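dude i think i finally got it to work??
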Amino acid sequence: MRVLVTGAAGFVGRYLCERLVADHELIAVDRQPGAGIAHALELPDDAGARALFARTRPEVVFHLAAFSSIADSELKQEQCRSVNVDGTRSLLRALPAAGGNCRFIYVSSCAVYGRVAASAQPITERAGGVGVGLREGAVEVDAHLGDQRARGLVERFVLRERVLELAEQRG
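look at this
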C-alpha cells in the first residue's frame, strides 16, 4: 500500500515511518528533504499538495505536520494557524488528485488543549488552557473535517493522544 506521511521528520512521524517502511511503499514528506525524506512540502500549499498527490497517488495519508508546541503556538499564533488549519485544508483540497479512495488520517494530540489543571479533567473540546492558538486551530480543523465528512469526502475520526505533551515535557 502507498502511504504518505506529512511531518515525517517530526517526533511521531519518525516512529510511524519506521513502522510503515517494512510493509508499505512509504512516501515521507516534511518541510525540508533530508534523511529518509524524499519530498518537501511547506504547508499550506494547494498546488504543491495537488502535484505531490497526483505524482505519488497515495492510498493513505497520515497528516502529522503541525505546530505541536504550546509555547511556540502562543508566540507564533498566525504561523501556527497557517500550518495547522490552512495546511490541513490545503491537503484536504488536494486529496482528489490522489485519485480514488485515498484515506486521510488526521493525527493530533491533547496538547491542543494547552495545560489543563487536573481539576478540569477529563478534557473536552471546549477546554481552556494556555494553548489557545492550538486549541482554536484544532476546533476549526475538526469543524472542516466534519463538513468534508458530511459531503462524503472523508471519514472523520480524530484521535488525540498524550504522546506530544509527554515529548514536550522531556524537552
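Residues 13 and 19 are 10 Å apart (CA to CA).
im so relieved honestly
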